[in-house]
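Tip: read the tokens left to right.
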């Protein structure tokens, strides 16, 4: 099925003329992109429809809050399009196009440069040589944009060369295509054949999905997941916790539960990054932790394997607990290996959206790990 993409908000007949005028102010800064399949999932009579929250702009995006590179990816960029933040993992930005643009995207800056994105990988040979020289790299994450927006031959060209490197054992494809356009998978048997070819006994292709709400799990989406499984891909799912979308325990639990049913294993639930324009979508950390824990309490062990983390510039930090007075954080994966497992206790701050918002440190640590402060002094 060939889908028509829309990039002008004024071409949406379901919105009023007033909404066209107001929301165009948003799309002049933050790009809008959707397709007819995904838009068809919206109940236009419900202003709080979850699919609408994901894809339709909001005037509050113009509020002054956040920054474009909220995780300081520039600090880990080796060459444009190649990042090496974690010892065993390299990231390649191989596409600057998505099947749709989530309003709370943390990498929305790349959609501001569609005619010459300075962060897109354009020198694949140099990136491959860097990976060959760094034998500690066993995992490659293909991202963007969305890698599945590339044609299968272009995607295979990248995966083939990566899998030919002895120490590369896993290639991860970070994608929202099964939600945005499952027909990309259903109608292209060559994609499934390619995955089967390179996902072998000793090396695997992982498809990391981005389902954010159970309403995205249509029959077509579920079938696309089933076919990816049959092709030999290992599937997992990550989602940000978003205000008005999945920020209550029942909604989040339903998503985790259904993901476990179809084999797209819950992987991460992310704290919404403080990217520019994201204030209307962000939930404070401590409120998010309570939502996450309540959701996990009502699902099976197979559905509660996700971890609640924030992708801070210094690493993935897991929110591991809270009391009325304290919040407990731990480095799940640190950019500096010496910080791995580092445990932090902060005075509770219900208004904290990011690690940097915590500035009152509790000094008497229950375990013997060095303290390092990443919040303001």
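Filled-in amino acids:
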């Amino acid at each position: 099925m060939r889908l028509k993409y829309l990039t002008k908000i004024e071409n949406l007949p379901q919105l009023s003329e007033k909404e066209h005028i107001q929301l165009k102010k948003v799309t002049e800064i933050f790009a809008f992109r959707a397709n007819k399949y995904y838009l068809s999932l919206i109940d236009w009579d419900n202003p709080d429809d979850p699919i609408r929250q994901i894809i339709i702009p909001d005037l509050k995006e113009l509020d002054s809050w956040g920054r474009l590179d909220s995780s300081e990816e520039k600090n880990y960029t080796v060459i444009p399009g190649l990042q090496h933040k974690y010892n065993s993992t390299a990231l390649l930005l191989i596409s600057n196009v998505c099947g749709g643009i989530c309003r709370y995207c943390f990498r929305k800056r790349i959609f501001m440069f569609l005619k010459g994105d300075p962060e897109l990988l354009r020198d694949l040979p140099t990136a491959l040589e860097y990976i060959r020289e760094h034998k500690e790299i066993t995992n490659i994450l293909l991202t963007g944009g969305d890698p599945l927006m590339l044609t299968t031959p272009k995607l295979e060209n990248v995966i083939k060369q990566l899998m030919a490197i002895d120490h590369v054992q896993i290639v991860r494809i970070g994608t929202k295509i099964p939600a945005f356009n499952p027909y990309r998978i259903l109608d292209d048997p060559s994609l499934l054949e390619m995955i089967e070819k390179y996902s072998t006994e000793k090396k695997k292709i992982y498809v990391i999905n981005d389902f954010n709400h159970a309403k995205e799990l249509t029959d077509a989406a579920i079938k696309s997941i089933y076919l990816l499984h049959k092709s030999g891909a290992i599937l997992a799912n990550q989602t940000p916790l978003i205000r008005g979308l999945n920020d209550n325990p029942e909604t989040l639990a339903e998503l985790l539960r259904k993901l476990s049913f179809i084999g797209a294993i819950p992987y991460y639930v992310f704290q919404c990054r403080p990217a520019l324009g994201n204030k209307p979508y962000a939930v404070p950390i401590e409120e998010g932790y309570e939502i996450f824990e309540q959701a996990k309490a009502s699902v099976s062990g197979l559905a509660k394997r996700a971890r609640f983390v924030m992708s801070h510039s210094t690493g993935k930090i897991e929110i591991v607990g809270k009391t009325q007075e304290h919040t407990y954080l731990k480095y799940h994966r640190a950019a500096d290996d010496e910080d791995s497992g580092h445990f932090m206790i902060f005075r509770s701050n219900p208004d904290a959206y990011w690690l940097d918002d915590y500035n009152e440190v509790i000094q008497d640590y229950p375990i013997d790990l060095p303290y390092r402060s990443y919040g303001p002094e």
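The chain has eleven helices and 14 strands. The two ends are 55 Å apart (CA to CA).
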